[in-house]
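[scheduler] slot 2 assigned
[scheduler] job type: sequence-to-structure, two independent chains
[scheduler] chain ordering preserved from manifest
[runner] begin chain α
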Amino acid sequence: RMKVAVMGAGAVGCYFGAMLARHGHDVTLIGRHQHVEAIRTGGGVKLDSKAFAGMVPVGATTEPAGVEGADLVLFCVKSGDTEAAGRTMAPFLKDGATVLSLQNGVDNPARLQPLLRQAVVPAAVYVATEMGGPGHVVHHGRGDLVIGASAASEAIAAQLSAAAIPTKVSDRVIDQLWAKLVINCAYNAL
């Protein structure tokens, strides 16, 4: 059982946080006030997917101190917020924590690492999700990750895979982030 914090509880963060919580992990979401309030008053994140529809109990806060004690931090903020969010959570991270950067773009882990003494591991995220309203995430498909190699990566991948988040470890994850960026540039333009 891992203690997990999700920094940036939007569609991606809420989905992966809910999946981990459904499989017995202790999850705290750190997000915007309207989402946190809906999660607290509604009894958790409302998850709608083909495999499950219902409430998933999780912790929620607007404060970066919510990362305190976490073994794993899923860092899901928008690219433009990388440094600011990294600075605000840095004082609360435990020494042995691993920060998994679940962000689009290719340079976020490199921008985040100098702000933290903990390992920052890049990840390529393949999931289709959207927010259906405050505290409500809708899953449309996939939900797998490719994460970079680190001392903790194999153990993290095993925990994620056991929580129905298929995860592979690759020392070429940056190549996958570039490929995803190129594809997004083409398809998003259309």
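[runner] end chain α
[runner] begin chain β
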Amino acid sequence: EISCSLVGSEMCIRDSMSKTVTGGRLAYADLLRAVAMLAVIIVHLAGSQLGNVPVGSAEFHVLNAYDGLTHWCVPVFIMLSGMFLLDPKHSLSSSKLFFGHILRMLVALVVWGTAYALVTQVSAAGLSWASNKAAQWQELQGKTHFHLRFLYMMVGLYLITPILRAFVRGASRADFHWFFLLCFVFVNLLPTLLRLWPNETVRLWVNNLNLHLVLGYVGYYVLGYYLKTYTLNRAAEYLIYLLGILGAVVTVGGTAWLSQQRGTLVQTLYNYDSPNIALMSVAVFVFFRYVLGVSEERSRRQRMSSVAQVSFGVYLVHVFFLIVLDRLHITVLSFPPVLAVPALTAVVFLCSFAVVWLISKIPLVGRYLT
């Protein structure tokens, strides 16, 4: 962490407040991880029906608000991973990286990917040896369930983690700023503008530059470490909040406007690499660090820690309960969406948490499955 002599006394006081630690864990990170998991469920519940309601209807606007305002969840999960794994103060050997992180993701991919594929096959053809074989083959081909694609991306980030750790270890604050500028322009801004207003000349220039180092989700990954390590002054913090609010308005309002203009749902501004989602994600992370991460109430911090420790497992299994709801013909349109989304989110989360907690108690394999 930057020393107090470099950042000033006010910022050091705020930094110490924002880093309440419980048992070696950052309280604000645990709280953010738990809330991000709820946001993922909201995205999946609201998003599953957003395309099934008339554009411009009351249901459309409610679901668009829920869906759009929680799309920061995936970038924040990536930032939470980067804030710890890229920290040079914490040792990360090759064996620890592989067995503690990469292997865990691969096991989860195989086990849960096969389980979801089997559910799909059984629903279509019934339970049989052939359906089981087809499920395993589908998983081996990488045709996994939609939410498990996140795991492939995380394995990719883990593979380049040693290189990124070397970068953050030697980078100055100005180096980080230049890196984030390149990420924002070539990952967030230009691709989104090209999706909305295609231009072959700009696209050709972007492709010819071949700036692969800053592409994908690596910017969010490094940003998590940066926001944990460097302290923001008041002006920067408030500017981030304002930009985050602007991002939220663009996400919800822009999606509604584009959809009404084209007469069908347009989700361009929902992309996790769009600039509006990036601004929202940074604002949420900063807000949890400086505002919501200061509680000294031990009982609450312990509850958040227990939820955060199984959040990965909840992510893996929650879609099973979405499938169950679908089989029961229960959706966020079954009753007023403004109430249905939070109510069904709570049901799915609690059921998922209970199942994951039980699985986590299985000796040896529990930690790899949750």
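[runner] end chain β
[qc] chain β: Confidence is low (pLDDT under 50) at residues 1-19.
[scheduler] slot 2 released
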